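Hi Y.,

Following your request, here is the sequence exactly as I used it, all 820 residues.
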Amino acid sequence: MGVGIHLGRVRLARHRRATVVLALLVAIAVGVVLASFAGARRTDAALPAMLRAHHAADAIVGFVPAAFGAKTSPNLVPEAAAIRRIPGVRDVERFTNGIVAVPKRSGGYGGSHVLATIAIDDGGLDAVGHPYVLSGHLPDAHRADEVAIDEELARDAHLHVGSMLPVRAFTFEQADQILDPSAPAKGEHVLARVTAIVRHPYDLRDLSAPRNPDNIFQGHYDLYLTAAFWQAAHGDVFGYNPSLAVALRDGRSGFDRFRHQVPRAVGGAPDVFSTDQFLTTAGTLQGVSHAVTVQSRALQAFGGLAAIVGLFLVGQTVGRQSRFEATDDDALRAIGVTDGQRRTALLVRILVVAVVGTALGIVLAVALSPVAPLPGSTARRALLHPGVAADWTVLLGGAAVAMLAVGAVGMATAWTRPRPVTLVVRPPVADRLGALGLPRPQTIGMQFALEPGRGPRAVPVRTALAATVVAVVVALAATVFGSSLAQLRHDPRLYGVTWDVSVGGASSPQESAADLATLRRIPGLRRYSGVNTANLEIDGRQVPTMMVRDDRGRVVPTIVDGRAPAARDEIALGADTMRTTGVGIGDQVHVGVPGRPALDLKVVGRSVLNASGVERTLALGTGALVDWSAVQPLFGRTAAKQFTPEAWLVQIAPDAHLTAVLGALRQSFPSTVTGPLQPADVETLAEVTDLPIAFPIVVALLGIGTIVHALISSVRRRQRDLAILKTIGFTRRQVASVITTQATTFAAIALVVGIPLGIALGRTAWSIAANGLGVASRATIPFMRAGAGCIALMAVAVIAAVVPAAMATRASVATVLQRD
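Below is the corresponding structure, written out as tokens. Let me know if you'd prefer a different format.
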């Protein structure tokens, strides 16, 4: 054992540069993997942590305002008193949601009507929940002229803490005017000072995503007014959702009992939600948990792929170093060194590399911790102060696994005897390249890169080439995938939107007819189609279905296979619906509604379903598309007369004046003009676009490390060859050129082989992902980025050869030849 340990220490000292490179490779791989899995755990914990800090009331009781035909009191005093008498209620605070008018500001947001949360009691805003205060301080409950605003309103209206913002309320008599942007508010008016910019859980969305401020229900600008404002207005503020925030003595565990007691206490059937239910059913947190989960799983997948690629590349490098050192095994056996002592020496090196590399990897993982949750993501916004964090459960557990993995690779190598080099009688590469007239330093450098050599000076260059090729393939595949994802975000047709805007919100045949007549009077429109949605039974499954009417041409969601339905007996399905029903283009499906006989419709196409601004439940791959001619056969003649378009999908003529047409649409369809909306799944994926960019960088670092190790080892093994070159007249520059050519040959071969394989792998991976997502599968090949990457790889190969070349030029000819 002592001989083996001593031999291991000697080899460490002799191959210290190679040991350093191996340790750094392990550190990069371990650090990235640990940071990914620790970041995934931090991502999962972000939203629950914010909700715990929010401290909202345990229950929300919402009432229909009197202006909409209910018997709700204007100020909720009797309702609050009734709720307080329910056993188990600790406190009740009143608040309301409403729409207030604020002036437009140049270069800013698109509308003058803003959603507001207005406290009726002094603690009304506290009961709604404690937000993250990003700057400033929360408004004083006794000041009517202080207001808090969300980030989106602050950004688009160019407001900051200290800005003055005129705010005017709508009165109860103006309940029917709140959606009319031209209607002036006539209620209480204050010149409010912005005291805080805040973030509530329902503000967890990527502010860089496109918004639709012309549609008040898509815009989500929020401000918060105090109870003093309500008192100054003498309660004459129209609120479309007057509510009570209720704190329970038993906390949220007492919610179910409380919910069943509310109808008896106040009469009627008010909406009763727990805080979590309120956030979800109100649409504020819809998809947020899913988005956080996707981000967490993406980090885990990133870490898993990095572990696989890193283990392969590091394993190849460790194995190559082990084979270098195994060439003197015969000499060691001749002087009495046993196989066990030889393996002990090798394991000493592996242990040092594993321990040092893993320790450095832990440091790197902690240094990378501020990157998770991913910048710009939903989970990132749920953390008020993301910074350095050490998840010791992941770090220590992952470090143990990493050391075992590196040790296992080393042990497998230690117990494997190197295969003897087979001599093949053929002209060396240098001779064949020299016949082409290439300079001798370059031909010898290529020979070093392509031929392993023989005997004790053999270098397993093929493993280095294989590792470099794998690095190029994986990096380019990730780049193609990331570029395709970015293209999906910026091309609405890929996620189903073939129209410029959707307009209208008709709720009756009369309103629908009026909207159509209005559209016909607006110049500059190329096509528009009326649409409505309904749930149909397709082969026994409830499927949200979009009906499209040909009003002026046909505007339908993107068809990726086949064609759009054009007759009453035709239907197009989303990709997920096709999979769940087990049908394809050309098959028949049974379609119907309850109480009516089902029809047999022929599947004529696969569509990317999208109904931006029309129907939220119609997802990318889930749903169906039929022509309007199928409405009467499906619903019957009587029902079909009442089934009219609720909105229109509008394409603007290419030669039209865009600003004028949009202005006319906004004037004719106030608060319902909606541009292309990215589906929730696309927005979620957009938050992880940094990972396909970061992955090639990580793989490139590992690939460069394998090249550096191969060059250092090659110089070490071929010192005698390099010394002979010096004796026959090679200058220091020519010797350095040999090593540089070897490095660039590695890179060039990796590019020639890896580029087509990487593009093919990236296209295949994106096709699988796009089909699973239900979007159009159009892979984007980033030629400019790939070209820049090729140039960068060649440049880095030259830089990587600097240290090995210096080693080769500094070596003493006499010392080398005397030693050998």
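Residues 106-111, 212-217, 420-427 have pLDDT under 50 and may be disordered.

Thanks again,
Q.
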